[in-house]
Amino acid sequence: MTLVPRRLSLIGLIGVVLLTLIAIPARPAAAVDSFSGYLMAHFTGEGSLTGEQVYFATSTDGLHWTDLNGSLPVLTSTVGERGVRDPSLVRSPTGDKFWLLATDLRIASGKGWHVAAHEGSTSLVIWESTDLVNWSEPWLADVAGSIPDAGCAWAPEAIYDPARKDYIVYWATIRPDKSRIYYSRTRDFRTFSAAQVYIERPGTQGIIDTQILEIAGGVGGYRYIRASADGQITIEGSNQILSGWTRLGDLSGLGLTGAQVEGPFLKKFNDRNEWALWVDRYGGAGYLPLTATNPAAPSEYRIRSDSEFEMGASTKRHGSIIPITQAQLNALRAKWGETPAGVNRLQSYNFTDRYVRHAGFDARLDADPYISDSQWRIVPGLANPAGDYVSIESVNFPGYYLRHTGFDFVLARNDDSELFKADATFKRVTGLADPTAVSFQSYNYPDRYLRHYSFALRLDPIDDAIGRADATFRITS
């Protein structure tokens, strides 16, 4: 072979190698990094004003949990009913995108369960993220609106279908006779196919919660295991997502039926062939873990004793768990920590048992308010971050600030307008009634100050001793 052909052959070989390298897509970190921890999304119940929002907790062993953000919500719904329940975390198959689906429902608003079930929202609330730390604004997806006589859309879940390269989203809808599980398909969680019946139990028996887990390589002869609340906590197996399901048993042998628990979901432990089936003791106790080395055999599940698990400071109701990498665990803890940093309360100077709080997005002064409603972050001013200018951001409604409108105060979401920024910015000055305390002078109306009047918050000129006392506060932890 002459020199020229050799050189051409070498160039051709290099070209083949380069084309091969270019053709191989980079694998996302989640596909190559081992999982070192777990993230749980949950709500806490309808007993507090913020209980029906999204909370996060993390764990390194899957049984002992630490609340993030000091047991306060990390995501707050600003759409639909402005409350969410039953959050479900969904990971893309390549691990580069996440979605959080939730029931659009706020029982704490006083509407009652019957109205919620039969005249409630037919939409799901959805967030999107690429890193579990930064989340999009929530949006509504009306998945059940086309179902005749649909009363609600509750307890959403999703699973990736590799055959169709899309996601099957499934949820419970209550019609006048009973509850069924419906499903739709989507690729982007914004556009959905028409809803179809997925699971319907015989006779009058309804079904309200279902979760499906795909098991790599299968277990007990099944690729998919399904747990459902249908009067029992029923375990089923199949090798297809939408059909071929076989009833394997239930948890009645452990004394657990639909009368005691709901919201079942399965999750494999990262470091071993053992699975946890979590069930929600909806009477108030929250989640209880059951474990088994064969999730397809209901008789093998055992209830973990109280000494074997720790759920953290908050009650954990119907949610979900996904495995996460060490980098993701570190990022989550760096973002929200285990206690909220820089959290303060504003105590009245002349009514020391009362604190500035929000209630129904109004701002007022109350004694013994819900603690989370009276917690604030004093941050650099939105209209002027320099010097002593500050804004007052809600802790349990991140992105919401105290602002004046018509000289009345409300809690409102930052719309990034110049007017909003000015209305939500104050100069922190020496207390008008006490130099050891503080007062807040309006940025755009410098002759006026934040004060309380009949325990409502107002922006007023101050010209007497009562006004000076009403406009003076102590910043406490």
UniProtKB/TrEMBL annotation:
Task: State the protein's name.
Answer: Alpha-L-arabinofuranosidase B arabinose-binding domain-containing protein
Query: Which Pfam family is one of this chain's hits?
Result: AbfB
Secretion signal span: none
Question: Care to name a GO molecular-function term for this sequence?
Answer: alpha-L-arabinofuranosidase activity
- InterPro entries registered for this protein in UniProt: AbfB_ABD (IPR007934), AbfB_ABD_sf (IPR036195), GH43_arabinanases (IPR050727), Glyco_hydro_beta-prop_sf (IPR023296)
Q: Which organism is it from?
A: Thermocatellispora tengchongensis
Q: Residue ranges of the Alpha-L-arabinofuranosidase B arabinose-binding domain?
A: 345-475
A GO BP entry is:
L-arabinose metabolic process
